[in-house]
Amino acid sequence: MRAATLPESIGTPNLAAMATATKHAHAHHHGAALAEAAQAELEARGEQWTQLRAAVFDILNHFEKPASAYDITEQLSAAQGRRIAANSVYRILDLFVGSNLAQRIESANAYIANPHPGCRHDCIFLVCDQCGQAIHVDDDAVAAKVREAAERAGFAPERPVIEVHGLCTDCAAKSTVS
Ligand SMILES: [Zn+2]
Ligand SMILES: [Zn+2]
Ligand SMILES: [Zn+2]
Asked: For each of the chain's 178 residues, which pLDDT tens digit applies?
């Protein structure tokens, strides 16, 4: 299912959640709609949406912070009622990352579902040191600057990793109370 294309100008300021300076209808999906979009993207790549892959995606989709391969293996084994090998989970996660269905938060050694499996961006992650959640931000202008800086240094940038550590709004509010 494709999101309806937005008219060129919609009269309202761009939301921070929307990628800046992109020419496509950039939409973030959640919940069941995200699982549907992920399945469509994987199948468009000629891969099957197997029961086990769907179960791994479901765990990522409902985890409230980035999930480690260990977290996923534990939840998956419990949900399936049998021991699932960590290697099977790693293979599925590799497939998901390569297919743009999931993203790896490098500094947390964990994974999150990609809310926009249909389009690629150099996504920025804001990682809360208190609660561990990772907030996904798209700002193509920032990522382009990072790529430019790398190129100026004679480096061929393959995959910029932009992760910012700090406190999320909730945790920052809690830490100023007391
Ligand atoms: Zn996009
Ligand atoms: Zn993104
Ligand atoms: Zn937090």
From this structure: 444 444 343 333 344 444 444 578 888 999 999 999 999 999 999 999 999 999 999 999 999 999 999 999 999 999 999 999 999 999 999 999 999 999 999 999 999 999 999 999 999 999 999 999 999 999 999 999 999 999 999 999 999 999 999 999 999 999 876 5
Q: Give me ligand 1 centre to Cα 27, in Å.
A: 7
CA distance 79 to 5: 38
Annotated domain spans of the chain = 31-176
Find the 136 Cα to ligand 3 centroid distance in Å.
13
d(CA 77, CA 58): 13
The CATH classification number of 31-176 equals 1.10.10.10
Which ligand is located closest to the Cα atom of residue 126?
A: 3
Distance from Cα 76 to the centre of ligand 2, integer Å: 26
How many C-alpha atoms does 97 have within 13 Å on its Cβ side? 15
Distance in Å, CA 77 to ligand 3 centroid: 28
